[in-house]
């Protein structure tokens, strides 16, 4: 592969030289130096636009406007006819004819209008160089800094929420540093992460969610290190068809983040500051009966005092955020540096998150054919977490405890409330802090040795050091000897990418762009942990206790690949692209690791045709049909060394033994492969007052990796195997409309809607457990992660079959073998009844009882602007999915829940909620929700002062209202954190808070 | 020309950056199976690992799971695993994580023993080391087979894909065969001192093999061999599983003593006596030294009301601390094996004299001294003698994982019901098979009725 690739590279290189040198000769013969200058303004309000790009089309010559919207540059060109293009993110690109003659002073002012429909944007992700979105054969979503700032998100993935059609963004925990899962067009893997590949300024970003200390499944996600204030815009590729150019890691899609850059001009200072308040939105229905069962007559309720533990566990928490940036530039140098501070409290008492970010970026044009850009982001953050789970999780205790006991300390001593932790003691005394340092650096070199020939080299470096501790002081009721644990993780990722593109006109009407590239990515990690107990008093370090465990685990991995991509364009109307990519990763077996991924796409801008223009062109000003096919792999799904059966190390008695591992190795593992076909159209109506993008897609994932359970009688517990196939089918729709556009008032509506049907088409054996005690499964013919468990006994007519007490009960019967569509045979439950009593008879039965995959998702944003006021309202909808509420299960059985209250009050018979505990179907809930995600009211004060330019005040609220029928805190949760197969499980989770915020943004001259 | 140099320069520089690509990284964290079983050091390390895993991990469910079923433990939490075990009957399924742990850990250890046996003859090493590895692996395999059929109706003799199951007699016969073969290995070539000091410094392997052999002969009903083998065991020898109290904790301490445990021992050893009109709690005889040996009788607590509110105490004995050592077998068991074998052979006076040896014992090498007087029951009644043997086994062999087997063998006429049962001496005869086995092995037999 490599040899072949080297050959291709040299051929292209040589041909490039050949074509290029011809061009140089022709050009240098009679070139004249022209001087271009002018101002670019917003066509709507005549504000100058800084950072707009001015390009002489096909000449690779151009410049950008400074902070006053002015541009000024010289270029050597042969007199003749050219095109000059003005563009910037969020605005329509304008291309004008340019006739160069004897006048060498070219003055051109340009007013460009906002691109509400986003159909003409210039994008760089997945293409060779800058390409207009309207030329692409695949859909690509962009999120501008305006979209992001409207809601002032605290993390990058939050910035995607509701802004990208086909993206399901779910917060996994309401902790201030809690992770968020992003799924583009459904799940494409089971064992790996389904989160997309994140690239920030060319650096492949570490998006790990490593559990350093056991906090009961809760993890942070490393994207939390990055401050969304730094984002200029985001480009999102959603599937293999578009992302084939990223090959090996792109089967989940690609999110490319571009940070803000400096503009030439006087230094510009922007400062923003906000304060916010977080609050729990809804508490669990607890036992507020103020009654208990009489110990002498268990059928009688007598008065008692019951405590609302949630009152203490949850509190109002406050936060502040500050951001300052200084940007500017002179001549060939541009710079920006920024600093930010975030401090946010968690709604669980004594939890918080603090983040400090520093960033600097320098852009330097070295000479006419070479430029360099260097950037570094340093992030330092810390959080105080609260564990979940047995012995010390406060919310776990809440679910199990009988709230008759007052957990408040008496004379400083927290009472023992039984075998579960005293929740007040847990939140007050347990410390689980995490500290993270992050450095993201990049060096980008751009060469334009010849006209039409670009070479880009990017070196990316991402280093993260995470430190997590758990400290349980001596004397905690459930852990009397105390615990001190410390774990660190050092992760380094590097990527080195070389890309070249050559574009030229084959004939006057056919344009050709050839792209070629090679990447080498290397990452290493070092995990180190020490666990101790029996602590000495006061001291918190691990040295203060006796060793109970330790861990030292190091990994190294490399991924490499190259591509060749060819695009032909015909008269700005028809575009055809073909590409191939070769990839490999060290994590797979020698024979399986190298893979080839093809891609093909085409687009047809019908609105460019005269017959179209002359007929319905007045109404539909842009209409493009597109189709795209491609494959991409998932080389990063497997952790390093998964191909080996590596024995566990077991030191004992002065010797170190080797213990057979639970997971057996498999040397024949292959990367998963996704094949995607997508087609759709982009439409601009009424001179882009209304823009519609529609895409239909179908993804087939083969060689799906699954952690297959092995019969214990093999001596092992599990093994990775390529034993599945899966499909995603769906559509996505984005609508952007300017409903009202008056001088003083405007109303813009943006809507995204999508539907995805996920189906596991084959797993070996028909059914595989994914986690949560076998309640999340993958079964052939079913969506991934359907819930499986005990269900209600029903009569043959489907009505509930009650027991002799009139209570619901578990279905019983036998299992019958049934052949699934893929030929696998699985046992399927059949209910049996006692012929005499009619009651259930046989073994307890399980079946599929719910589906965590939403039927459709949508989001609608409204932006109203009146004079200097603007109001932003965003509503997110996730509909038609189930949540398995383990919280409800516990509250049905244990006396701290509402069920016991109802029994005590005599509203329902005593003991009637107990059977629910065993019927998993009873705690499958409808999770469908419509959330008022964001409401923000802003006032923008324009100042004519010499030193201050503008002041903007924003009052906003997030997650204020959720319209749902969910029993628990919030259906938008996931206990198993970033896990892919296990979704929609809610157990002792911290809910997402509602947030109120007040902020000021000031920009200074 | 200038341009050509420019381009070549760029490609040269970037080429250097790109071609430092490395594509293979060995796993430095742990050796893999194909590296371990090719040399002596690997086999010795795997032998140590097998003991480490069995003693620190597998021993926990061996004691805990049948211990809850036969009332050795009172349950103090409503976690599902101990709750289902306390209720027994049909409340218990192959999804109980305790049963899953018991099943899979035993089979994992058995697999390690089988790997050693399959590879030991292909590796050059000193003869005394080879004997050590072979005899230890056979002992471990026999022991895991034995523990499997003490709690499950059938078990696979050999691990593998779609492993075939055998009934308990066949399995126990295989265990006997393995133990005898291990004894042959040792008599042909003694275990080297190097192996003893490195791998089994706290275990007298020959005595342990004979003790387990005697146990399995008794289970099989081969009473003559049971007596003869029990006679061979040196009652003054000690064999112990070793713990350091930090990285390798006493596993029973971990689940029944440390912190706020789910389960604690019942004050009367949890012995339930069938009075004819239902089950009643056995009252320990005054002055039985084993009560204070195994329990801290000064602190009283009660199991949860839904689990019978039985009085529980804090556990002592072999489980008091994280570094308490656990005997591989107890010498008192040899006396009780002889007592039962004699009784079964209708040699009642011999049986009673063995019972009295246990009751009057004051010189136990581990300190398990009853210090009671001679038995005063009906020495002419085989049933009465067997009942006394059941009680003595229940106390003497407290928390050795044997009570389910004992109760089923000695009180075989009692059949537990399908409903929740927190009173009778056991609420299951055998456990259902782990659902993981059932889902992945077509040869997994049907679950027992009870």
User: Approximately what portion of the residues of chain A adopt beta-strand conformation?
Assistant: over 45%
Strand tally of chain A is 54
Number of domains of chain B: 1
Oligomer: heterodimer
Give the low-confidence spans of chain A. Answer: 1-29
**What radius of gyration of chain A results from the CA coordinates?**
31 Å
CATH topology of chain B: Serine Threonine Protein Phosphatase 5, Tetratricopeptide repeat
Task: Give the helix proportion of chain B (percent range).
Answer: 40-55%
Distance between the ends of chain B: 91 Å
CATH 4th-level superfamily of the largest domain in chain A: TonB-dependent receptor, beta-barrel domain
- State the CATH class of the largest domain in chain A: Mainly Beta
SSE layout and pairing:
The complex is a heterodimer of chains A (1005) and B (450).
Chain A (H helix, E strand, L loop, with lengths): L1 H29 L1 E11 L10 E4 L4 E4 L5 E8 L2 E8 L6 E7 L4 E3 L2 E3 L9 E2 L7 E2 L8 E4 H7 L4 H5 L6 E5 L8 E5 L12 E4 L2 E2 L26 E7 L2 H4 L10 E6 L5 E15 L11 E4 L2 E7 L5 H5 L3 E14 L2 E13 L6 E16 L2 E16 L8 H7 L22 H7 L2 E19 L2 E20 L10 E25 L2 E24 L12 E25 L3 E12 L9 E11 L4 H5 L5 E15 L13 E5 L2 E5 L3 E2 L7 E14 L4 E20 L8 E24 L3 E19 L3 E5 L4 E4 L6 E5 L21 E8 L5 E7 L11 E2 L1 E5 L5 E11 L2 E11 L2 E4 H8 L4 H7 L19 E3 L2 E14 L5 E17 L20 E2 L7 E11 L1
Parallel strand pairs in A: 1-7, 1-8, 14-17, 35-38, 49-53
Antiparallel strand pairs in A: 1-4, 2-3, 2-5, 5-6, 9-10, 11-16, 12-13, 14-15, 16-17, 18-21, 18-54, 19-20, 21-22, 22-23, 23-24, 24-25, 25-26, 26-27, 27-28, 28-29, 29-30, 30-31, 31-32, 32-36, 33-34, 36-37, 37-38, 38-39, 39-47, 40-41, 41-42, 42-46, 43-44, 43-45, 47-48, 48-51, 49-50, 51-52, 52-54
Helix pairs in contact in A: 6-7
Chain B lengths: L1 H17 L14 H4 L3 H30 L3 E3 L4 H8 L9 H23 L7 H25 L2 E3 L8 E3 H21 L4 H6 L6 H16 L2 H10 L7 E2 L9 H6 L6 E3 L6 E3 L4 E3 L7 H6 E8 L8 E5 L10 E2 L3 H14 L3 H12 L22 H15 L6 H8 L24 H6 L10
Antiparallel strand pairs in B: 1-5, 2-3, 4-10, 6-7, 8-9
């Amino acid at each position: 592969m490599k040899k072949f690739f080297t050959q291709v590279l040299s051929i292209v290189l040589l041909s490039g030289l050949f074509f290029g040198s011809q061009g140089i000769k022709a050009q240098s013969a009679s070139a004249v130096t022209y001087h271009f200058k002018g101002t670019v303004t917003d066509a709507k309000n005549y504000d100058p636009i800084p950072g707009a790009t001015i390009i002489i089309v096909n000449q690779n010559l151009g410049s950008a406007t400074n902070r006053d919207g002015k541009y000024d540059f010289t270029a050597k060109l042969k007199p003749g006819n050219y095109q000059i293009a003005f563009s910037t993110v969020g605005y329509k690109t304008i291309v004008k004819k340019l006739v160069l003659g004897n006048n060498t002073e070219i003055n051109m002012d340009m007013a460009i209008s906002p691109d509400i429909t986003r159909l003409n944007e210039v994008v760089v992700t997945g293409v060779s160089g800058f390409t207009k979105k309207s030329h692409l054969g695949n859909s690509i979503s962009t999120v501008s800094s305006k979209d992001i700032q409207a809601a002032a998100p605290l993390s990058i993935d939050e910035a995607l929420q509701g802004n990208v059609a086909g993206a399901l963004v779910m917060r996994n925990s309401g902790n201030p540093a809690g992770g968020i899962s992003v799924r583009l067009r459904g799940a494409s893997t089971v064992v790996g992460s389904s989160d997309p590949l994140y690239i920030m300024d060319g650096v492949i970003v570490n998006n790990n969610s490593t559990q350093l200390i056991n906090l009961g499944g809760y993890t942070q996600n490393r994207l939390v290190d990055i401050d969304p204030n730094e984002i200029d815009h985001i480009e999102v590729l959603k599937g293999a068809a578009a992302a084939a150019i990223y090959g090996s890691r792109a089967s989940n899609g690609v999110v490319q983040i571009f940070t803000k850059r400096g503009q030439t001009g006087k230094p510009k200072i922007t400062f923003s500051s906000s304060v916010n308040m977080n609050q729990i939105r809804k508490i669990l229905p607890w036992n507020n009966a103020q009654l208990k069962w009489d110990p002498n007559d268990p059928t009688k309720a007598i008065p008692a005092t019951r405590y609302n533990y949630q009152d203490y566990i949850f509190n109002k928490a406050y936060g502040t955020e500050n951001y300052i940036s200084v940007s500017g530039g002179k001549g060939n140098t541009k710079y920006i540096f920024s600093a930010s501070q975030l401090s946010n409290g968690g709604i669980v008492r004594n939890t918080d998150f603090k983040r400090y970010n520093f960033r600097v970026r320098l852009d330097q044009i070295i000479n006419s054919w070479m430029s360099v850009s260097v950037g570094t982001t340093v992030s330092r953050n810390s959080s105080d977490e609260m564990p979940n789970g047995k012995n010390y999780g406060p919310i776990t205790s809440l679910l199990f405890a009988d709230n008759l006991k007052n957990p408040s300390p008496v004379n400083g001593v927290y009472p023992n409330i039984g075998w579960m932790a005293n929740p007040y003691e847990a939140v007050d005394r347990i410390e689980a802090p995490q500290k993270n340092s992050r450095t993201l650096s990049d060096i980008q070199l751009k060469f334009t040795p010849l006209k039409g020939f670009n070479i880009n080299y990017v070196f990316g470096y991402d280093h993260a050091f995470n430190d997590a501790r758990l400290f349980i002081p001596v004397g905690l009721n459930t852990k009397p000897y105390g615990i001190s644990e410390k774990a660190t993780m050092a992760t380094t990722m590097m990527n080195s990418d070389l890309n070249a593109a050559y574009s030229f006109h084959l004939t006057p009407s056919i344009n050709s762009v050839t792209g070629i590239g090679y990447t080498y990515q290397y990452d290493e990690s070092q995990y180190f942990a020490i666990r101790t107990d029996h602590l000495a008093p006061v001291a918190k370090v691990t040295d203060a206790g006796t060793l109970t465990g330790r861990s030292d685990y190091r990994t190294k991995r490399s991924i490499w690949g190259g591509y060749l991509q060819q695009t032909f364009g015909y008269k700005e109307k028809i575009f055809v692209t073909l590409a191939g990519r070769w990839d490999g990763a060290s994590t797979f077996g020698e024979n399986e690791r190298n893979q080839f991924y093809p891609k093909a796409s085409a687009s047809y801008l019908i609105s460019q045709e005269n017959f179209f223009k002359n007929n319905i062109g007045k109404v539909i000003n842009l209409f493009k049909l597109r189709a795209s096919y491609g494959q991409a792999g998932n080389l990063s799904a497997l952790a390093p060394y998964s191909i080996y059966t590596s024995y566990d190390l077991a030191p004992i008695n002065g010797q170190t033994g080797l213990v057979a591992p639970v997971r057996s190795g498999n040397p024949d593992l292959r990367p998963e492969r996704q094949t995607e076909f997508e087609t759709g159209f982009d439409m601009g109506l009424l001179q882009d007052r209304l823009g519609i993008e529609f895409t239909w897609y179908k993804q087939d994932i083969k060689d799906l990796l699954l952690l297959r359970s092995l019969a214990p009688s093999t001596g092992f517990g599990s093994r990775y195997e390529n034993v599945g196939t899966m499909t995603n089918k769906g559509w996505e729709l984005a609508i952007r409309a300017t409903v009202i556009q008056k001088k003083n008032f405007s109303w813009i509506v943006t809507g995204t809607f999508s539907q995805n049907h996920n189906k596991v088409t084959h797993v070996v054996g028909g059914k595989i457990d994914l986690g949560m005690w076998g309640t999340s499964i993958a079964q052939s013919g079913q969506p991934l992660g359907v819930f499986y468990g005990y269900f209600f006994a029903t009569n043959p007519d489907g009505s509930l079959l009650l027991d002799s007490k009139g209570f619901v009960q578990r279905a019983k019967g036998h299992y019958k073998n049934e052949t699934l569509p893929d030929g696998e045979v699985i046992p399927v439950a059949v209910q049996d009844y006692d012929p005499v009593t009619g009651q259930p008879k046989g073994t307890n039965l399980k079946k599929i009882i719910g589906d965590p995959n939403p039927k459709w998702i949508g989001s609608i944003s409204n932006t109203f602007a009146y004079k200097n006021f603007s109001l932003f309202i965003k509503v997110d909808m996730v509909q038609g999915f189930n949540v398995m509420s383990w919280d409800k299960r516990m509250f049905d059985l244990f006396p701290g829940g509402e069920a016991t209250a109802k029994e005590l009050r005599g509203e329902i018979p005593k003991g009637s909620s107990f059977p629910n505990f065993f019927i998993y179907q009873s705690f499958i809930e409808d999770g469908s929700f419509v959330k008022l995600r964001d409401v923000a009211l802003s006032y923008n004060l324009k100042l004519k002062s010499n030193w201050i330019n503008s002041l903007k005040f924003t009052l906003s609220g997030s997650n204020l209202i959720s319209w749902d029928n969910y029993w628990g805190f919030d259906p938008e949760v996931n206990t198993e954190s970033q896990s892919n197969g296990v979704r929609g499980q809610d157990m002792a989770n911290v809910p997402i808070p509602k947030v109120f915020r007040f902020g000021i943004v000031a920009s200074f001259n | 020309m200038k341009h050509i140099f420019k381009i070549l320069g760029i490609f040269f520089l970037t080429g250097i950056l790109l071609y430092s690509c490395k594509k293979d990284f060995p796993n430095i964290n742990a050796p893999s199976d194909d590296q371990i079983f090719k040399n002596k050091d690997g086999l010795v390390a795997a032998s140590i690992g097998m003991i480490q895993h069995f003693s620190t991990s597998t021993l926990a469910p061996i004691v805990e799971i049948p211990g809850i079923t036969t009332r050795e433990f009172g349950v103090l939490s409503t976690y599902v695993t101990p709750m289902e075990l306390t209720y027994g009957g049909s409340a218990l399924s192959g999804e109980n994580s305790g049963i899953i742990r018991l099943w899979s850990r035993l089979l994992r250890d058995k697999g390690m023993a089988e790997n050693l046996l399959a590879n030991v003859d292909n590796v050059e090493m000193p003869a005394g080391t080879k004997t050590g590895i072979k005899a230890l692996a056979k002992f471990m395999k026999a022991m895991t087979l034995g523990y499997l059929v003490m709690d499950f109706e059938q078990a696979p003799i050999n691990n593998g894909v779609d492993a075939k199951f055998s009934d308990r007699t066949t399995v126990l016969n295989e265990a006997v065969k393995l133990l005898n073969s291990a004894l042959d290995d040792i008599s042909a070539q003694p275990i080297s001192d190097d192996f003893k000091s490195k791998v089994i410094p706290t275990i007298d392997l020959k005595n342990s093999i004979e003790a387990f052999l005697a146990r399995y002969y008794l289970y099989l009903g081969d009473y003559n061999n049971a007596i003869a083998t029990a006679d061979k065991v040196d009652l003054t020898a000690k064999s112990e599983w070793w713990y350091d109290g930090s990285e390798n904790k006493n596993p029973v301490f971990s689940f029944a003593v440390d912190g706020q445990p789910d389960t604690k021992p019942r004050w009367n050893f949890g012995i339930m006596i069938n009075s004819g009109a239902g089950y009643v709690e056995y009252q320990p005889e005054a002055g039985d030294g084993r009560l204070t040996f195994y329990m801290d009788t000064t602190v009283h607590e009660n199991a949860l009301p839904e689990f019978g509110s039985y009085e529980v105490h804090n556990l002592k004995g072999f489980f008091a601390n994280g570094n308490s050592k656990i005997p591989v077998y107890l010498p008192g068991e040899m006396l009780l094996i002889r007592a039962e074998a004699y009784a079964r052979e209708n040699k009642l006076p011999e049986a009673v004299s063995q019972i009295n040896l246990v009751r009057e014992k004051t010189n136990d090498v581990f300190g398990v001294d009853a210090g009671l007087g001679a038995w005063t029951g009906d020495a002419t009644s085989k049933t009465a003698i067997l009942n006394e043997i059941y009680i003595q086994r229940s106390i003497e062999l407290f928390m050795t994982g044997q009570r389910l087997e004992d109760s089923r063998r000695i009180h075989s006429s009692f059949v537990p019901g399908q409903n929740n049962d927190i009173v009778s001496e056991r609420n299951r005869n055998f456990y259902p098979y782990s659902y993981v086995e059932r889902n992945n092995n077509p040869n997994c037999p049907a679950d027992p009725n009870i």
